[in-house]
Amino acid sequence: MRLHHFSKYDPNENNKTSFEKLLDIFMQLLTYTSGDVGEALSWLTELDKEYNLTNDEYGMGDFIEDLKDKGYIDENKQKGEIKITPKTEQGIRKRSLEEIFGKLKKSRNGNHQTFKPGNGDEINPETRPFQFGDTLEQIDFTESIRNAQINHGVESFMMQEGDLEIRETDFKTQTSTVLMIDISHSMILYGEDRITPAKKVAMALSELITTKYPKDTIDIVVFGNDAWTVEIKDLPYLQVGPYHTNTVAGLELAMDILRKRKNPNKQIFMITDGKPTCLKIGKRYYKNSFGVDRRILNRCMNLAAQCKKLKIPITTFMIASDPYLQKFVTEFTETNNGKAFFASLDRLGAFIFKDFESGKRKTVY
């Protein structure tokens, strides 16, 4: 019996060269291997053996040489190291963006339009009559003079309040975002890779903001036993460590970052798969992995309340479905008046995209 393998038709696939097809797979593998070129190439070689990705005319050796010649990898022969280049780092972010958010064109001005009229850099084509409280800067003098000429005549020219026309500008929000990523050991426990989808989301969101919303800011905070920031360029190398979950440290660092931002609209996105299990008290770590520790929980709730006072909403993306974890997230969200999503790994990017984009149509007061 003859078997047939069916796959989704991609009209652009036939136009790709052998190098481009292998490059797509190689970029995906680099995310899983945290930027380890040697491991990614080993995986690609094994895939080639099983699925015949190369042929007699173009082999893996040719692909590796092309990676070097085209500036995707850099080989240090003295140290015996092969590393990816900044070109590859950006390529991984772009592919994550295309995978999760679709292809987005770069915007020069940023495009955070809201339904709130106010001072901004985009003028509405419509005008309206003057109202008490309107400022001098809002008056459209061309239309106002035209009205005065029509209403009072050219010879006895005069301008009254009823002649004035107001041209509004659309308020464009500028948002400062901190994306918190849990890198505790549970992110790879039980045979489920949770850190790779989190990295992809971080890379896609970073690329989205830096290209489509260049006036915005995004900072990446990772938290385990402690919390620290990572550069956007370092996201492909992010790995899980033998850590507990110090959510308090992550929130404190995120709040410190946002206090320094001048944008009026600030928000925190937090990706985690578990409950807080760790605090740092002085130089020692207070840890409890069994159930929800009230001492740790109270610190989290206090920070959630502080963020609410500072008008910083926290959106939690919980990639776990344990009932007692949902209870914690619900209580945390109610304290902050934020939002929570219990997202599956394959839908994590869609959840964050929808929430981020919906926030562009409103202003946080």
Which features would summarize this protein structure in a list?
single chain; 365 residues; alpha/beta; Arc Repressor Mutant, subunit A; Rossmann fold; 3 domains; two-stranded antiparallel sheet; 12 strands; disordered N terminus; disordered C terminus
Strand neighbour order, sheet with most strands: 7-6-5-8-11-12
The major sheet is characterized as: 6 strands, mixed
Got a strand count? 12
Our measurement of the CA-to-CA distance between the termini, rounded to an integer number of angstroms, reads 67 Å
How many whole angstroms does the radius of gyration measure?
Answer: 27 Å
Low-confidence parts, pLDDT < 50 over ≥5 residues? Answer: 1-6, 103-123, 361-365
Q: Which structural class do you get from the secondary structure elements? A: alpha/beta
The average pLDDT value, as a whole number, equals 82
Structure annotation, total helices? 10
**CATH-assigned homologous superfamily of the largest domain:** von Willebrand factor, type A domain
Instruction: Write the H/E string, N to C.
Output: HHHEEHEHEEHEEHEEEHEHEH
How much helicity do the residues have?
25-40%
Please tell me the total number of domains: 3
Outline, from the CA principal axes?
A: flat
Beta fraction: 15-25%
CATH fold-level topology of the largest domain: Rossmann fold
What is the CATH-assigned architecture of the largest domain? 3-Layer(aba) Sandwich
Give a structural overview.
With 365 residues, this protein is of the alpha/beta class. A 6-stranded mixed beta sheet has the order 7-6-5-8-11-12, with helices on both faces. It has a two-stranded antiparallel ribbon with strand order 1-2. The chain has a two-stranded antiparallel ribbon with strand order 3-4. α6 packs parallel to α10. The radius of gyration is 27 Å and the shape is flat.
